[in-house]
Amino acid sequence: MYVPFTAITLVSLFVGYSLVIRAITYILVSRELADLAHMLFDAAGDGDYDSVDRLLGLAPMEVGVNSRSTRDGWTPLIRAAYFGREAVVRRLLEEE
């Protein structure tokens, strides 16, 4: 049976397509933010002030000092303090 394309059919297809695009974008952005968070944890533990500053500037709300690592449950602030990275601790406290 042939069903002709109508404006409603086209709109339905477009809405479905845009939802798929949104879902893919969400997954990619979520993954990118997770990567940024891990980079922040590593930079904080290493005492890499410039990288910490740059990462906080990229997405301060999503990649923040209170983000907990899935590896050990620590925050970037805890990592920096544990390893004695005073400059990084001060920078992370400014963000909070």
**Roughly how many Å is the radius of gyration?**
21 Å
Tell me, what is the CATH class of the domain at 33-95?
Answer: Mainly Alpha
CATH topology group of the domain at 33-95: Serine Threonine Protein Phosphatase 5, Tetratricopeptide repeat
Helicity level: 55-70%
General shape: elongated
Strand content: under 5%
Query: What average pLDDT do the residues reach?
Result: 76
**How large is the count of helical segments?**
4
Contiguous low-pLDDT stretches (5 residues minimum) are none
Would you list the SSEs in sequence order as H and E? HHHH
Distance between the termini: 62 Å
Largest sheet: none
| Strand-pairing-aware structural class | mainly alpha
Please state the second-level CATH architecture of the domain at 33-95.
Answer: Alpha Horseshoe
Give an overview in words.
With 96 residues, the protein is mostly helical. The protein has a domain at 33-95: Serine Threonine Protein Phosphatase 5, Tetratricopeptide repeat. Helices cover 70% and strands 0% of the residues. The protein is built from four helices and no strands. It has helices spanning 7-46, 49-58, 76-82, 86-95. It starts with 6 loop residues before the first helix and ends with a helix.
